Amino acid sequence: MNYPTGIKKTNLKKDHSNINYKNRGMTLESEINLSNEYYREIDKAYIYKKPTPIKITKVDYPSRDKAIIKEAFFTIPSTTDYNGIYKGKYIDFEAKETKSTTSFTLSNIHPHQIKHLSNVINHGGVAFVIVRFTTLNETFLLPAEKLLSYLKKCKRKSIPLTYFKEKAIILNDGYQPRIDYLAVVDNLIGGI
Predict the structure, then answer these.
(1) Nearest Cα to 133, choosing from 178, 101, 171?
(2) Cβ(68)–Cβ(104) under 8 Å?
(3) pLDDT of residue 69
(4) In the chain, where are the structural domains located?
(5) What does the alpha-carbon distance between residue 182 and residue 188 come to, in Å, rounded to a whole number?
(6) CA-to-CA distance for 164 and 176, rounded, in angstroms?
(7) What does the angle CA 81 – CA 54 – CA 98 come to, to the nearest 5 degrees?
(8) pLDDT by residue (tens digit) across 139-158?
(9) Chain mean position to CA 88
(10) Domain range 27-51+79-188, CATH class
């Protein structure tokens, strides 16, 4: 193609060597982290991402301020991704993403996490799962009670998107907070 100014189009090959794929799938967690930071800044809630419990077995100490962990392992399975306090209520939830356009695979949530969510409910806390269907760009908050009810009634290995559309609450993207999941939590706790 010849452009009016005489500039010739050149075939540019895309260089994929510098693309960093290590944080793919972390967008939901990143957005929740930003939301939680905003909630803390405005003194609305104190909810944090839980660290994964590890035991360090080997450390290199070239100097005190430059210690390098050389070997570590997971000590116990972690429970859920986030916990904290909001309006005097304990909040605990898991965040997951799926590329599927039809369902959320239950193997993404481990049995010990389901038990943990159940225990939180049994002790008066607020528990839920936030699931993003990345291909559809839809994010849902599914109360743990609805998740547990589904698990008792259905023997499928996944939760269909239709269940999320019927039983979960859609979370819209915003500016500040990025994902205002506490607006939904207000409804779950009755607007205390």
Answers:
(1) 101
(2) no
(3) 76
(4) 27-51+79-188
(5) 9
(6) 25
(7) 35
(8) 999 999 999 999 999 888 99
(9) 23
(10) alpha beta
